[in-house]
Every structure is written in structure tokens, then in C-alpha cells.
């Protein structure tokens, strides 16, 4: 799930950079890209991978 969110955030950063949109200091393309890379790093490390399934004990 975090991988998909990271892809969306990185795509938004690309659009901000490619369209040369003027945004405020918080939502510059570099800041949005860094947020996307942080989400991607969390995804690769295993955070947000889904529910852990446990087998039934009898």
C-alpha cells in the first residue's frame, strides 16, 4: 500500500516540476519528492505490508 502511495506522491512531484507550478514553500517539488522517497523506503523495509496472518492453533 505504501508503494502505491509513494508512486502517486512521486508522480505529483514530477507534475509540479514539469509544469513549473509556483507553490508555497512547503509543497515544492523537492519536498514532495522527499516525502515520496520516504514512503518508498518504508514500503521496502516492510512497514505497511498488510495484515500478518497467523495459523489456527488446535
Describe it:
- With 58 residues, the protein is an all-alpha fold.
- It has one domain (2-45).
- The protein has 2 helices and no strands.
- Helix 1 packs antiparallel against helix 2 (29-45).
Rg calc: 16 Å
Strand content: under 5%
On the 0 to 100 scale, the average pLDDT is 80
How would you classify the helix and strand content by structural class?
A: mainly alpha
**N-to-C terminal Cα separation, in Å?**
33 Å
Main beta-sheet strand count, sense and barrel state:
none
Order of helices and strands: HH
Runs with pLDDT <50, length 5+?
none
Assembly state of the chains shown: single chain
Individual helix count: 2
Number of domains: 1
Number of strands: 0
Helical fraction? 55-70%
Overall geometric form: rod-shaped
Could you give a quick summary of the protein structure above?
The chain has 58 residues and is mostly helical. The chain is 60% helix and 0% strand.
Amino acid at each position: 500500500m505504501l508503494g502505491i502511495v509513494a508512486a502517486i506522491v512521486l508522480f505529483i512531484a514530477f507534475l509540479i516540476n514539469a509544469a513549473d507550478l509556483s507553490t508555497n514553500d512547503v509543497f515544492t517539488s523537492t519536498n514532495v519528492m522527499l516525502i515520496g522517497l520516504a514512503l518508498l523506503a518504508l514500503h521496502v523495509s516492510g512497514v505497511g505490508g498488510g495484515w500478518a496472518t497467523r495459523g489456527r492453533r488446535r
